[in-house]
Design a protein that fits this description.
This protein is an alpha/beta fold. The chain is about 40% helix and about 15% strand. Helix 7 packs across helix 8. The mean pLDDT is about 95.
Length: about 350
């Protein structure tokens, strides 16, 4: 049997989608499982044993209709028996259609349901602390009565050589890996997913004061200006603990560096999901428009905790869900001050560093 799992999107989605492959591998141990993802997300699934091949959806397929058509022809040639489309957008709709697979599964959308012969309706309330992001993906493979008892956690697989390289990298920058190290996700993937810089700076001051830990910043090159602005807003005593210029130059390098950290704290996004997949404790600050129960995976109030504006100022939402407030996210962020976040963060730090 040949199975194609489609999960184009961001790093967090691709990492979470690996649980579909893991369950499929257990259900059909003799099947060949291919995982279709964007090229830039490959490092997060490197060494994963639950699929046989990575199928890259390259940027050229998005830029050129001709290149995309050639890709679709290649998909058809592979003769898949079973396609699971966890993405559910035009690109993956066409891939599924061209595959001509006898079994085609995806989430319900009224305008694309005719492309699939099995449709899964997403549930809005989680059964467990795994989150709806996990549980709904499991529904693409498992019957409802097995979801709660067969929860699967996303995993990242790094080898000893990668860990040693990251250790050498840190120690070459005068960081003792035997001392507490905290990774701060200082910026989100976009402005609407980023706590205002002045609030983040105060939070980092609080972290530094209570932990005296070595602090690393997680940011990508085009965010350096904003990351630097946060650094400059912190107190001088905090800056002594921040190693601003110590950051990995590749996603795989970041993962190996993160594996040496005692916790990751900051904006919700792919870095949080990677930390959880490495069993690194996390404290997540959710954007005001993200629905928390969709992505607060495996939150237990001890190793993994989080805060959302709706937790501290529910009156701002009235009868609107966070998702309906997306266009007001920047305005809502102004209400999400560091003073509202710090009490819960301090409680979390006391748990982690007790």
């Amino acid at each position: 049997m040949k199975i194609l799992v489609i999960q184009q999107k961001m790093i967090g989605d691709v990492l979470t989608g690996t649980i579909i492959c893991e369950v499929l591998k257990k259900e059909y141990p003799d099947a060949t499982i291919d995982y279709l993802i964007y090229s830039n997300t490959k490092p997060v699934v490197k060494n994963n044993p639950f699929f046989d091949n990575i199928i890259e959806f390259k940027q050229e397929y998005r830029d050129s209709k001709q290149a995309f058509y050639q890709f679709l022809k290649q998909i058809r040639k592979t003769r898949y028996d079973h396609v699971i489309d966890a993405f559910g957008k035009l690109e993956s709709n066409l891939i599924t259609l061209f595959s001509k697979a006898p079994k085609r599964v995806s989430f319900y959308k009224w305008y694309t349901q005719f492309l699939y012969n099995k449709i899964i309706h997403r549930k809005t309330e989680p059964l467990t602390n795994a989150s709806t992001a996990i549980e709904n993906r499991l529904r693409l493979v498992l019957p409802e009565h097995r979801i709660a008892s067969e929860i699967v956690k996303p995993k990242i697989f790094i080898d000893q050589e990668e860990k040693e390289k990251a250790k050498e990298f840190l120690e070459s920058n005068n960081i003792n890996t035997g001392d507490p190290i905290l990774m701060i996700s200082v910026l989100g993937s976009e402005e609407r997913k980023t706590l205002p810089l002045r609030f983040m700076a105060k939070i980092i001051d609080e972290i530094a004061y209570h932990t005296k830990a070595t602090i690393l910043f997680n940011y990508i090159p085009n965010q350096e200006k904003d990351a630097k602005a946060i650094y400059e807003l912190t107190l001088p005593r905090t800056q002594q603990l921040i190693h601003f210029n110590v950051y990995a130059k590749s996603l795989r390098g970041f993962i190996a560096t993160l594996a040496h950290c005692d916790a990751l704290i900051g904006n919700e996004g792919g870095a949080v999901n990677m930390a959880k997949a490495l069993d690194i404790p996390t404290f997540t600050i959710f954007s005001p428009w993200i629905i928390k129960k969709d992505w607060n995976m495996f939150e237990d109030g001890v190793d993994h905790d989080s805060i959302h504006l709706i937790d501290v100022k529910p009156e701002l939402y009235e009868n609107n869900s966070p998702k309906l407030m997306k266009d007001k996210s920047l305005e809502l962020y102004q209400h999400f001050s560091s003073e509202l976040i710090i009490p819960k963060l301090k409680s979390y730090l006391n748990q982690i560093f007790k």
